[in-house]
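[Automated response] Your request has been received and processed.

Submitted sequence:
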Amino acid sequence: MKRWARRTAADGTPRPPRGRPRAAYAAILDGHTLWLAVDSAHGRLSLREPGGDVVQLRSDLPDDQPGYTSIRADLAGLPVPESGEQTWEVVLARPLLPDQRVWSPGLPESGPTRTPPTPDGRAQLSLDRADDGTLLVRRQPLPPTVELLRVVHDEPHVRFTVAAPASPEDAALVVLDGDDAVLLTLPLVPVADGLEAAVSIADLPPDRVGVVRFAVGTPDAWVRVRRRANDFTDPAYAALLPALFGDDPEVPRVRFRWSPDGLLAARMIDPAEEQP
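Generated structure:
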């Protein structure tokens, strides 16, 4: 009778297919650095492009952990096509031998944290798993944004300091409705490290109720304001922003908050609305 190899170890750990190095740990924690350890094997951990070209990863981590081959590699300089979208297979490159695709037993489910965008905010790097278990690195381009540097509650204003955009001369704080139609603009004043806008209840549409969004630029050309290194799955509840109050100091009129993708917004509240 033919004997089949066990696909799980005695402790229940899934085993990789024959000839496939197993990823013991894999993560992109800061938006641009790959931490990866595979069961000890001969070769160099690399990324393989769809066309077959192999990109060798440079590690700044001493590979001195017994039983594992490990790297800590900055992915910021990876070559990407003009579209900005790319998927790489993680492989173990071996001289004079075929590359071995790294096998992942599975990736952790999403929790309260997530991988933040790249430091420049232009892309989202993530790990994925192919149908055959191959560990993948994906890069998705993100829309242009400007980074929020600082928030100060200076009653009756909330002051937002943003990084200066590429063309700061005519830049203003652009207030948008939920469909990205321009409602109004507010002035941005140069400060030492960027541009600052002061927002009060009187500056916002008086009869407006619901969500408004904030951007920087002109009414015809603007980019949204993003949270720096957003690593929360739901930053609206994990990274609180100030509120503005009207005549009743117990009832907020404007709650500034982050959208699920880490972009600055606010909810304008009807004073007659029942508060939770």
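Summary generated for your ticket: The chain has two domains: 23-141, 145-268. The radius of gyration is 24 Å.
If you did not submit this request, please reply to this message.
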